[in-house]
């Protein structure tokens, strides 16, 4: 139990693929769970997410005690946390997809629709794209430059640029990752990003923020 990873099951994640990717990265104890008690004992926490911001936020809050358990374990205790795709977007103050919905509020900012002026640039942003790091590493070595797989129509716009851990370009700059202390979120899908994604997950298993 001491080294267990809690992979949060709230009806909004690509759980099977993420579970398999964590195992391929070297994790021998992954608990796919909707139980706040398991989250409170986990050594690391992964929050996936596929779909709309509102549906994911509501699904997470529908599990009694889950948001409180995440707050306690991640923000109070400093447990390493990784949010993936909408799981990363939920870190924001609010999302503006189909109306405004409150996020977890761990990293100040909004999740907005991707806006492009060039008709050749398609939305959703789908496929492989570069991941570029800012001048100062915000993720304590967790995020590296490379190429990852993206699939999204909305993007995280943090209030504070210091929370940006990586960028990509899709008709303009788009935040590819955010980081703050023990909390990291990635817009791309590590579980679909082949060797780049597995390397990230391997580093997450060893990460000591």
Automatic annotation (TrEMBL):
InterPro entries documented for this protein: Class_I_gatase-like, GATASE, Imidazole-glycPsynth_HisH
Catalytic activity, as annotated: L-glutamine + H2O = L-glutamate + NH4(+); 5-[(5-phospho-1-deoxy-D-ribulos-1-ylimino)methylamino]-1-(5-phospho-beta-D-ribosyl)imidazole-4-carboxamide + L-glutamine = D-erythro-1-(imidazol-4-yl)glycerol 3-phosphate + 5-amino-1-(5-phospho-beta-D-ribosyl)imidazole-4-carboxamide + L-glutamate + H(+)
GO biological process, one term: L-histidine biosynthetic process
Xref: Pfam families: GATase
EC number: 4.3.2.10, 3.5.1.2
Annotated GO CC locations: cytoplasm
Subcellular location: Cytoplasm
Keyword flag Transit peptide: no
Pathway involvement of the protein, from the record: Amino-acid biosynthesis; L-histidine biosynthesis; L-histidine from 5-phospho-alpha-D-ribose 1-diphosphate: step 5/9
Keyword vocabulary terms for this entry: Amino-acid biosynthesis, Cytoplasm, Glutamine amidotransferase, Histidine biosynthesis, Hydrolase, Lyase
Active site feature: 85 (nucleophile), 189, 191
GO molecular function: glutaminase activity; imidazoleglycerol-phosphate synthase activity; lyase activity
Residues annotated as domain Glutamine amidotransferase: 7-196
HAMAP family: HisH
PANTHER family in the record: IMIDAZOLE GLYCEROL PHOSPHATE SYNTHASE SUBUNIT HISH
General function of this protein: IGPS catalyzes the conversion of PRFAR and glutamine to IGP, AICAR and glutamate. The HisH subunit catalyzes the hydrolysis of glutamine to glutamate and ammonia as part of the synthesis of IGP and AICAR. The resulting ammonia molecule is channeled to the active site of HisF.
Quaternary context: Heterodimer of HisH and HisF.
Protein name: Imidazole glycerol phosphate synthase subunit HisH
Lineage, opening ranks: Bacteria, Pseudomonadati, Pseudomonadota, Alphaproteobacteria, Sphingomonadales
Originating gene: hisH
């Amino acid at each position: 139990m001491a080294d267990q990873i809690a992979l949060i099951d709230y009806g909004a994640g690509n759980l099977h693929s993420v579970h398999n990717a964590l195992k391929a990265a070297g994790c021998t104890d992954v608990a796919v769970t909707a139980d706040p008690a398991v989250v409170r004992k986990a050594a690391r926490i992964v929050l996936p997410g596929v779909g709309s911001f509102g549906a994911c936020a509501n699904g997470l809050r529908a599990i009694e005690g889950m948001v409180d358990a995440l707050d306690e374990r991640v923000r109070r205790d400093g447990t390493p946390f990784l949010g993936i795709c909408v799981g990363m977007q939920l870190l924001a103050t609010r999302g503006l997809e189909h109306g405004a919905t409150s996020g977890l509020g761990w990293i100040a900012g909004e999740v907005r629709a991707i806006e492009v002026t060039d008709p050749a640039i398609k939305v959703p942003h789908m496929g492989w794209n570069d991941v570029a790091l800012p001048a100062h590493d915000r993720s304590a070595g967790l995020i590296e430059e490379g190429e990852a797989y993206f699939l999204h129509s909305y993007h995280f716009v943090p209030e504070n640029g210091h929370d940006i851990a990586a960028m990509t370009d899709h008709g303009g700059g788009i935040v590819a990752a955010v980081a703050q202390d023990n909390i990291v979120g990635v817009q791309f899908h590590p579980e679909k990003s082949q060797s780049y994604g597995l390397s990230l997950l391997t580093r997450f298993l060893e990460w000591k923020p």
